[in-house]
């Protein structure tokens, strides 16, 4: 066990992925570990609203962001987080790298590993690719989203947003709506919300809600109005066309009619239900513009803000696990 793992206020068990210095998924974390990451992140929210945002907690550390899939929020957020913590950060995009010349994931990982990075943030279109990479490199690995498997920092930033607005996660009813089949955001959130004692409802067309979720005992609805009844949180998901082979929905117009969030469907939820979306949004497909931009109900911009604080916390905790300051 590392010195950091032994400290009294640190709840990370020695066999945890965090103790190995990785954040590969929410599955397997315990409630205390999640609360610990959220508490740390909470401390960075006000800090990030100050003019001077620079810290030196990760001074001398090198962070490489290796993104095999497009990203706006996650990559910018990890870059800002690393820089605000004082690390040297570089972004490796697939365009313009040897990956385009046919280099394998593991060869790329070993090449980068030889440059002694302390942290690798990896996004890949194949589920499981980030776990595989973590076994091959010496530094800390953070999953920035792998296929339809997990996107742990998204679930943590969603949890921080909810906790700040509602005071708690336990006991809330959260509806996750839309393209659940292709969503790593949904999977990470299902794990986190279950671990933290919230109730999860999945709502979407039968083609986009895998039967395996029902078999896991999750409450599934195929009707938005029924599914949204009295929920505290409405989490909308993007229709992930790029992961679909074949046709899952008749047309985007029809999809919006049945599954798109508008005020009429939202009226089934609690009057103070919070609206969330991980982005990027398809306005008029899974969410109406006026609902997305409702400053009283929508937490979508806040989710982005919480993303930086959560990623700063994750970088700090993982670096501490590997090499206590
Ligand atoms: N940005 C999220 C992800 O990378 C959600 C999405 O793309 O729809 O999974």
Number of helices: 13
Secondary structure class reads alpha/beta
Bound molecules: aspartic acid
How would you spell out the order of helices and strands?
A: HEHEHEHEHEHEHEHEHEHHEHH
- If you compute it from the alpha carbons, what radius of gyration comes out, rounded to the nearest whole angstrom? 19 Å
Q: How many strands, which pairing sense, and closed or not: the largest β-sheet? A: 5 strands, parallel
Proportion of residues in β-strands: 5-15%
Quick one: how many beta strands?
10
- Low-pLDDT runs: 1-8
Cα end-to-end separation: 15 Å
Q: Mean of residue pLDDT?
A: 93
The residue fraction in helices comes out at: 25-40%
Apparent shape: globular
Largest sheet: spatial strand order: 1-5-4-2-3
Tell me about this structure.
The longest helix has 23 residues, at 300-322. This protein has helices spanning 3-6, 31-47, 73-84, 105-113, 129-134, 152-166, 184-195, 211-215, 224-227, 252-259, 263-266, 289-292, 300-322, and strands at residues 22-23, 62-67, 88-93, 119-124, 140-146, 173-177, 199-203, 219-221, 233-236, 274-276. α2 crosses α6, α3 crosses α13 (300-322) and α6 (152-166) packs across α13. The model is unreliable at 1-8 (pLDDT under 50). Helices cover 38% and strands 14% of the residues. It has 325 residues and is α/β, with parallel strands linked by helices. The protein contains 13 helices and 10 strands. The strands form 2 sheets. The chain has a 5-stranded parallel beta sheet with strand order 1-5-4-2-3. It has a 5-stranded parallel beta sheet with strand order 8-7-6-9-10. The two termini are 15 Å apart.
């Amino acid at each position: 066990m590392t010195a950091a793992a032994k400290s009294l206020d640190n709840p990370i068990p020695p066999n945890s992925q965090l103790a190995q210095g990785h954040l590969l998924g929410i599955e397997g974390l315990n409630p205390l570990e999640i609360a610990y990451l959220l508490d740390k992140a909470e401390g960075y929210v006000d800090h990030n609203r100050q003019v001077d945002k620079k810290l030196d907690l990760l001074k001398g550390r090198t962070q490489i962001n290796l993104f095999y899939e497009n990203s706006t929020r996650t990559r910018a957020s990890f870059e800002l987080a690393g820089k605000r913590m004082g690390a040297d950060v570089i972004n490796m995009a697939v365009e313009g790298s040897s990956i385009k010349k046919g280099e394998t994931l593991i060869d790329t990982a070993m090449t980068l590993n030889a440059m002694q990075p302390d942290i690798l943030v990896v996004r890949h279109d194949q589920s499981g690719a980030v776990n595989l990479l973590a076994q091959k490199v010496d530094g800390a690995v953070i999953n920035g989203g792998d296929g339809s498997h997990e996107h742990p920092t998204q679930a943590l930033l969603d949890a921080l947003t909810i906790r700040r607005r509602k005071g708690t996660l336990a006991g809330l009813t959260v509806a996750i709506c839309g393209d659940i089949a292709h969503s790593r955001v949904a999977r990470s959130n299902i794990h986190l919300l279950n671990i933290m004692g919230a109730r999860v409802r999945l709502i979407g067309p039968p083609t986009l809600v895998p039967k395996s979720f029902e078999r896991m005992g999750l409450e599934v609805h195929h009707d938005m109005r029924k599914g949204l009844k009295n929920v505290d949180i409405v989490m909308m998901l993007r229709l992930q066309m790029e992961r679909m082979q074949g046709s899952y929905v008749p047309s985007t117009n029809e999809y919006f009619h049945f599954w798109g969030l508008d005020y009429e469907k939202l009226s089934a939820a609690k009057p103070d239900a919070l609206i969330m979306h991980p982005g990027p949004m398809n306005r008029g497909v899974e969410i109406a513009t006026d609902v997305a931009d409702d400053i009283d109900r929508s937490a979508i911009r806040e989710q982005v803000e919480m993303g930086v604080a959560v990623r700063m916390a994750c970088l700090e905790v993982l670096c501490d696990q590997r090499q206590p300051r």
